[in-house]
Amino acid sequence: MNRLSLAGTELDYFHICAFFNSRDEEYAVLGPYYKEGIDQGEKNLHVVNPAMLSDHRSRLESAGIDTAHCEACGQLEVLRWEQAYLDETGSFSKQRMLDAVDHMTGAGLDAGYSRIRIMGDMAWVFDKIPGASAILEYEAEVNDVLSRNRQPAVCVYDIAKLSGAMMMDLLRTHPLTLIGGVVQENPFYTPSHEMLKELRARAAA
C-alpha cells in the first residue's frame, strides 16, 4: 500500500478531526497531504463551501497540483456542499451521507484507485441547516464505515466557530485529532456505540 502521511505522521487509515485557525494554516498542513495522494495515483475527493471553490482550486495549484488535469481524469473531485452533505431540499441526511461514504470508500474504489482521500469542510454545520443537529451521530457512525473500508477522511473545522461543548463532542467522535499542525491519538475518543447511546439519551431528556 502507498504511503499515507499527514503532518509528518505515518498512518494506515483514519478519521481525523482537523481544527484550524485560518485557511492559510489549513492548506499549509493539508496541501502536502493532498499532493502526496496525487503523486501516488490515488484519488482526492474534497467537499467544500461553494463560495470557496475557486479559492480551493487555487490553493491546490499552489501546493503543486494540476487541478484542471486531475479533475479531467477523475483523480481529483471537488464537490459543493449540496452535492454531498445536503440533499435536494438543502437538508442534511445522516443516512444518505453514510451510504455515500460507504460507496465512495468501498464499491467506489472499483474505479481503480487504491485509496480515496476524503476531505470535508464542515462549516455548513453552523449555517442553521435542517438536520445539522445529527452531525455528531454522523461523525460517530462514519468511524465504522471508514474503519471497515480502511480509507482516510479529514473533517475540517474552524476553531472560531466552535463552542467549548461542541469541540469536546467532536473530539469524542474522532479517534485522531489534528491541532496546531500536530496529529495525535485522541484520549477523549468514545467508541461509536457508546457515543450514540449518550447522544440519544440527551435527545430524549
- Strand order of the main beta sheet, please? 5-4-6-7-3-8-9
Number of domains: 1
Number of strands: 9
Q: Give helix and strand order, one letter per element, not per position.
A: EEEHEHHEHEHEHEEH
Roughly how many Å apart are the termini? 46 Å
Query: Do you know the CATH topology?
Result: Rossmann fold
Sheet-strand content, in percent, reads 15-25%
**Considering DSSP H and I runs of 4 or more, what fraction of the residues is helical?**
40-55%
Q: Stretches where pLDDT falls below 50 for ≥5 residues?
A: none
> What composes the largest sheet?
7 strands, mixed
The residue-averaged pLDDT reads 93
In DSSP terms (H or I, runs of 4 or more residues), the helix count works out at 7
Shape: globular
The CATH superfamily bears the name P-loop containing nucleotide triphosphate hydrolases
CATH class division = Alpha Beta
Using the CA coordinates, give the radius of gyration: 16 Å
* Estimated structural class: alpha/beta
Question: Which architecture would the CATH scheme give at its second level?
Answer: 3-Layer(aba) Sandwich
In short:
By secondary structure, this protein is α/β, with parallel strands linked by helices.
Name the descriptors.
alpha/beta; 7-stranded mixed beta sheet; Rossmann fold; 20% strand; two-stranded antiparallel ribbon
Written description of the protein model:
This protein has 205 residues and is an alpha/beta fold. The protein has one domain: 3-Layer(aba) Sandwich (Rossmann fold). 40% of the residues lie in helices and 20% in strands. The chain has seven helices and nine strands; from the N terminus they run βββαβααβαβαβαββα. It has helices spanning 23-39, 53-62, 67-73, 94-105, 135-149, 164-172, 192-204, and strands at 5-6, 9-10, 15-20, 43-48, 76-80, 116-121, 153-158, 176-179, 182-185. The strands form two sheets. A seven-stranded mixed β-sheet has the order 5-4-6-7-3-8-9. It has a two-stranded antiparallel sheet with strand order 1-2. Helix 5 links the parallel strand 6 and strand 7. Helix 4 (94-105) packs parallel to helix 5 (135-149). The radius of gyration is 16 Å and the shape is globular. The termini are far apart. The mean pLDDT is 93.
